[in-house]
## 1
Amino acid sequence: MNKHHSVCLPLPNNPIHSPIPMPFPILRTSFVVLSEIISLLEPNEIVTASLCSKKVRHLLKNHYQRRKPSKWRLSMFSWGLVDIMTRTVSKRINVMMARHISEQEGTEHKSIEFNGYKGTLDKGLPILYFRDHVFGIKMVVDYVTDLFGLDIYGFTTGSDGLWAFDWINNRQEKLLGGKGLNKNPNYALNEDKTDDDVLIVRNDVSINARFNGKLGPPDVLLLDSDAHWVTCDYLMKSDAIKLFVSFSKLSELELNSFLRHWRAGGSPRLAYLKVRFDDEDTYFVNFDEDLETFETKAWTRFRVVVDDDCFEIREDYIIQRQDGVKATIHCGLGHFTMFVWHSDKN
Amino acid sequence: MSSTEQGTSSAAPAEPTTAPESAAAPEVPESFYYVHGKDKVVHKVSAGALQHSALIHGMISNLGYTEEQAKANPFPFENIDGDILQMVVDWCNQHKGKPTPPEDTNLPKQKEKLFDLVLAVNYLEIKELLTYCCKQVAMMVKGKSPEEIREIWMIPTDAEDEAAEKEAKKRAGKEAAGETAAAAGDAK
C-alpha cells in the first residue's frame, strides 16, 4: 500500500506542488458511496482517476457498464482529442488526448504515465505522447470508449484523418453514415434525431468520390466554415435530415426555389434547415406567392439534439407540402430556419 | 434541539436542554428520540430531524414510543464514533424541516473525519448529507494527476496490488495446507 500522510505533501516528480488534502481511502467505502462519488466526477476526472491503477480502471469500467451514460456522446478528433458531450452540445468536456512526441509539453505541467507512455496533465486533460501518432490516437480512443462503454458518436477530421473513417466503421456497429462536405475543418458528428443515431460529417476531400454509395447520404450535415459555394441545387440534392449552412450567400430567389422543391416532395427527409447568411443583415421576408405561406403566432418547441437543446418557435410562417406535412419557417436577422413537422414528431 | 450527556445506553438520560424553536412552533408537541454512538453519549433528537435518516425513520415510524419509552430505549449505534454522531445529529437539526440548499454551508468542517462521517451517513441512510460529503470527496481530486489522486484516495499502485494479491494467495495456500494437515492428523 501507499504510504499515506495526513499533511500536505509536495510530490517530488511533479513540478506543480499543489497541496494534497487529507487522504480519503476511497476503496474502503461501500458500493453505494463509491457510485455516488463516481457520479459526481466529470468525464475527464474519471479518465484521470482510471490511470491510477488497473483495479480502479476495472472498478470505473464496471460502474459504467452498470450505469451506461446513455446520454453522453463521445467524439474523436483526428488530431488526437477525445471529448464527451454530457448533456448539451455546449457542454463538451475534453477527456483525453494523444499527441505526437514532438509536441511534448515542458515541465510546467504535471507528469503522468500510462502503459509506459509518458504524458502530462494540462488543465485536467490527460495527454499522452506517442512516436506513432495514429497508433496513439487509436489507443486513446479505444481506452476512453472501453472505459465508458461508449461508441464513437462524432468525428472531426482534417485531411490527414481520413484513415479514421474505416477504422471507426470497422470497430463499431454504428457506422459513420455521412459524407464530408466542407473545405475545412472537417467534422463528423452523430446527432440524435429521436432515438436514432444520425451523423454529421464535414471534410475537405472530394466527398462524393469517397463516401457516395459506401456510406449513403448524410443524416446531419454541417457546412459551417466556408459555405459560400452552397447553391440551391446543392441543398436540393443533399437529402439530409438536419442541414446547417453557415456563411451562406443563398439568395431569396434560391431559398424560394428550395421551398418550392420541398413542397413538391423534394428533400423528403429534411427535418431541420438552418441557414446563417454571410451578410448578417440579411433578412428573408419575401416568400413567393405560390408557396402559400401564412403567418402563425403558435408557440412550439423543436428538439435539435437533446432535450436541453430545444428551440422555441413563435410568430413565424407555416408552409405546407402537397402531402400535408407542414413546416415552420423562422426568419431572423442573418438567418433562416425551417422546422419540418414529420408525423414521427421529429 | 439536541443535547448530549455522558451515560450508557441503558441509563435513562437526564432531561436535556433544548434550544429555542423557531417562532412557528408546531401545534402538536414534537416527539423526541434518543441515539448514542460508541461513546455512549446520548443525543436527544426530534423525530423531524431524524426524518433525514431513512434508517432511523424506518425504525421509529411504527414504534409509537412514549417520551419515557423513548428515553429508556435510546438507539445504539455502536459502530459510529461519538463525535461523528454528534456531527450527524447537528446536521439533521440544522436541516430539520427545511429544503436543503444546493450548496450546503453547514457541512462538518473537520476534513480528517470525512471518511468516518461518510461511513456513518451511508449507514444511517442520510441521502442528502451523503451527497454533500461525496461532493467533498470528488472535489479533492479536481485538477489532480493520477499520482496525486493515488495519494489522496489512498489507492495502491498496480505493483502494490499485485504484491498484496500474491501475499493473500500465499496466506490462503498456507491456511489450506494447515487445514489439510489438521484433517490428516484427525484422520489418524
## 2
Amino acid sequence: MPAGQTHQTDVIIIGAGPVGLFAVFELGLLNLKCHLIDVLDKPGGQCAELYPEKPIYDIPAFPVVSGQELTDNLMAQIAPFDPVFHLGQTATRFEKGDDEWTVVTDAGTRITAPVVVLAAGGGTFQPKKPPIKGIEAFESASVFYAVKHMQDFANKDLVIAGGGDSALDWCLNLQPMARSVTLVHRRPDFRAAPDSVSKMFALVEAGKMRFVQGQATGFEGEAPNLTGVNIKTPEGVEHVPADAFLAFFGLTMKMGPLEALGLEMENGLFAVDTEKFETTTPRIFAIGDICTYPGKLKLILSGFHEGALMAQQAFRYCRPGERLRFQYTTSSSELQTRLGVRDEKSKSPASISPA
Amino acid sequence: MADPKLHVTDQEGKRHTLVGISGWRVMEVIRDYGLPIKAECGGALECATCHVYVAPEWLEKLPEKSEEEEERLDDAFEVEDNSRLSCQILMSEALDGLEVTLAPGSEP
C-alpha cells in the first residue's frame, strides 16, 4: 500500500509478526477487516528478521517449523481476509476520536478504526547505535544508520563502520562522490559478499579509500556537526577527520517509539485484562510479547490465544448492536464462505454434520 | 557434583553469583535470573545482544569460537579479545566458577 494515504478500516494492528498475522485470521472470521503497520519491509516480525531459518519446536501441530515457514503459512492462512499491509512504517501518533482512533505513521499514512491492536512484540526494530557518548546529538546532521539520499554525502569526508553488506555496499557506492571514505571494522575479515570485499580492497590498494582496523569510540566536533571520529586500533587511538559517520551494525528492537505514543505502560509493557486483552486505554488492545498480565508467558502460542479473545471484544466495538455468533470453521457455512473453502454446489457443510 | 556456579558482573558493575545447570547456555542462565541481558534472537546467532567479556583466566577453558560467532560479533560494540556471545557457551562442571561481564549493548 503506498504511503501517505488516508484509510478507514475495522482494526489497525501495529506489528506484523506471527501474533499480529494470526489476529487477522481471528478478526477475519468475525468479518472484521484489518490494516497492519510494521517497521520492517516484510511481514513476519522477529521470525522473519531475526531467525528465519531457526527451527521452532513449540507451535502446536508443527513438530518443527522455521520462522520463515511459520510466516509463510500464516500469510497463506489469512489471505482470504485480504489484510492491507503498511510496511516500512512506524506508528508515531495516536489521535483519539469519537469511538475511534486514528493512527498516523512516520510516512504520513493515516488509518482510522474503532479498534487498535498492539502486537509489536519486543518493540520496533531500529538500527543499533554504537555506545558513543553524545551520539544522539549528532544524529540530525552527521551520524546516520541508513542512506536515504546519496547526494547528501557528496564531497564529504565519510567514516563508515561495520563488516556486513550494508557497510561494504555503501563504501563502494559513495566512494565515487565522497571527498574521502574510511571504512572502520574490528578485524581484517568481513562477512559481506566476497566480491564487495575484493572491490573495497582494490579501492584501498588504488589509494581511493582507507580501511582502518578498529572500532569507533568517540566523536570530535560541536554537535550536531562532526569534525572527526576517534578510532581505537590495535596500535592506539587514531583520529580521522570526518563530516559524517555511517554505522551499520544491524537492527535491534526498542520500545522507544511505542513509549512515545503516550499510552499507559507498566515496566515497559502494556498491562491487559485476560478476558479481552484490552489495555487501560479503551479500544486499544495488546497481544503477544508486548502485553503483560499475571502468569504471562512470552510464547507464540500464547499470542495466538490472546488474539482470539481480543477479537471477541473488538467485534463488539466494531459492530455495536450486532449479535456475536461464535461459530466453528469445521461446521459453519458462513465461516467456510469467508475462508473461500465452501463447496457452493453441494451446499453441504465441508465436514462434521450435527448428530 | 553440585551445579556449576556462574559469576556475572552486570553493566552497573554489580557482581552476581548464579547457579547454572550443566548443558544450559550461559545466556539462558543469566536470563533465567532476570539479569539485564537482551539476548533477543534467543540463541540463533543472529543478534550479538548477549555479548559478554570472559575473565582472562577462563578463556582457554572455553570451547573455541566458531566462524559464525566471530562474524556475529561484528554486530557487537566494544569487542575485545575476551569477547564471546554467551549463547555459545554451555555450562558444565569444568566451567564451575566461570566469570563473565555483560558488555555494552547487551542491556535490554
